[in-house]
């Protein structure tokens, strides 16, 4: 199934979504790696690979990796714990693309991103992108293995190693099978053993492995900022709810939590928010969440028979297909201003 498998070795970060990178690495500008598992504006993931050679005076980031085939890679990221030692799996990327060059992260197109720049003012760059990524935060990193084959920062296990000795091929294949078994244990727990799954970059984008179970990776800073703004500004979202009780992360009897609820004596609105990092799949999911939350809230308020409005708040315009869908289901759509 996976004909192209690679490993990258990075500095140590607590989450690779903004936390500082540590370690005894000898290459400069490791701060590119601090957002290796932070989804970008379109929901894709962007990974920086440490230098693999080249003239550092002319190419301060080193040479970008250039495998013979650029797409369709399964790339595992590993890091050495600077406190305790040991090489651990910190996450992986599926259906990854090697760009053969260093590219600036897309957040800079929207202005200065919250994660800033490198220590000497350089923009954060990447060399690999992928539609799906799985991050393992520091407390849950349990998969340890020997780093005998990791002499460099990048190792191709399958798909780019024709000149190897038979013993090297055997060692690489053994390591590939070990990593694939780790991936299968992860996905088997989710009931998707051999199927890559789409995970929302907005809510719990990164699953955690270890301690006998899995759990959500938490809310993105973009989603939190939008959710709190919606709670504080009901009159901007729905002018007829200017005087209301506003709640956030409102619990429903179905076990769900609504991002925001506006409550008047005679009417209720359930509000789902999707920030600018949500891609089309995530927006579509938000539309159906609106349908579900409205139905559950109506059932909860059946004794008063209050009308319930369903509202989707985004930071970007939605597609024509999504617009037709929300009209069909009588959902209100509001585009929140980015300069709020």
Structure overview:
It is a single chain. The longest helix is centred in the middle third of the chain and has 24 residues, at 166-189. The model is unreliable at 192-201 and 203-217 (pLDDT under 50). By secondary structure, the protein is α+β, with helices and mostly antiparallel strands. It has helices at residues 166-189, 221-232, 234-237, 280-300, 320-328; strands spanning 5-10, 12-13, 21-22, 45-47, 73-80, 87-104, 125-130, 132-135, 144-145, 154-158, 245-251, 257-263, 268-274, 308-314, 332-335. It starts with a strand and ends in a 5-residue tail after the last strand. The protein has two domains: 5-189, no CATH class; 221-335, Trna Endonuclease, Chain: A, domain 1, CATH 3.40.1350. The strands form three sheets. Strands 1, 4, 5, 6, 7, 8, 9 and 10 form an eight-stranded mixed sheet that branches. The chain is elongated, with a radius of gyration of 23 Å. It contains five helices and 15 strands. It is 21% helix and 26% strand.
Helix content: 10-25%
Major sheet, described briefly? 8 strands, mixed
- Integer-rounded radius of gyration: 23 Å
Our measurement of the CA-to-CA distance between the termini, rounded to an integer number of angstroms, reads: 47 Å
Oligomerization state: single chain
Estimate the mean pLDDT confidence.
82
Low-confidence stretches are 192-201, 203-217
User: Structural class, please?
Assistant: alpha+beta
Shape: elongated
The SSE string, one letter per element, is: EEEEEEEEEEHHHEEEHEHE
Please work out how many helical segments DSSP would assign.
5
């Amino acid at each position: 199934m996976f004909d192209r498998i690679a490993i990258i070795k990075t500095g140590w970060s607590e989450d690779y979504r903004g936390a500082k990178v540590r370690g005894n690495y000898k290459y400069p500008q490791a701060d590119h790696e601090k957002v290796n598992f932070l989804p970008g504006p379109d929901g894709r993931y962007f990974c920086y690979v440490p230098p693999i050679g080249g003239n550092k005076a002319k190419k301060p980031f080193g040479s970008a990796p250039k495998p013979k085939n650029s797409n369709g890679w399964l790339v595992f990221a590993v890091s050495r714990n600077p406190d305790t030692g040991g090489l651990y799996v910190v996450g992986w990327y599926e259906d990854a693309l090697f760009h053969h060059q260093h590219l600036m992260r897309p957040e800079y197109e929207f202005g200065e991103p919250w994660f800033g720049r490198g220590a000497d003012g350089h923009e954060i760059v990447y060399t690999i992108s992928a539609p799906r990524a799985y991050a393992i935060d520091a407390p849950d990193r349990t998969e340890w293995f020997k780093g005998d084959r990791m002499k460099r920062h990048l190792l191709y296990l399958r798909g780019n190693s024709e000149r190897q000795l038979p013993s090297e091929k055997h060692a690489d294949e053994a390591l590939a099978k070990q990593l694939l078994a780790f991936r299968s244990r992860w996905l088997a727990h989710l009931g998707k053993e051999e199927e890559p799954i789409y995970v929302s970059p907005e809510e719990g984008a990164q699953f955690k492995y270890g301690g006998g179970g899995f759990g959500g990776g938490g809310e993105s800073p973009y989603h939190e900022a939008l959710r709190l703004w919606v709670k504080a500004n009901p009159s901007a979202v729905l002018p007829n709810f200017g005087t209301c009780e506003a709640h956030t992360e409102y619990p429903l009897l179905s076990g769900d939590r609504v991002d925001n609820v506006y409550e008047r004596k005679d009417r209720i609105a359930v509000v789902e928010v999707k920030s600018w990092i949500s891609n089309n799949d995530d927006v579509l999911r938000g539309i159906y969440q609106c349908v579900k939350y409205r139905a559950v809230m109506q059932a909860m308020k059946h004794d008063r028979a209050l009308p319930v409005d369903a509202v989707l708040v985004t930071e970007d315009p939605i597609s024509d297909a999504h617009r037709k869908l929300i009209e069909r289901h009588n959902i209100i759509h509001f585009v929140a201003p980015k300069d709020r």
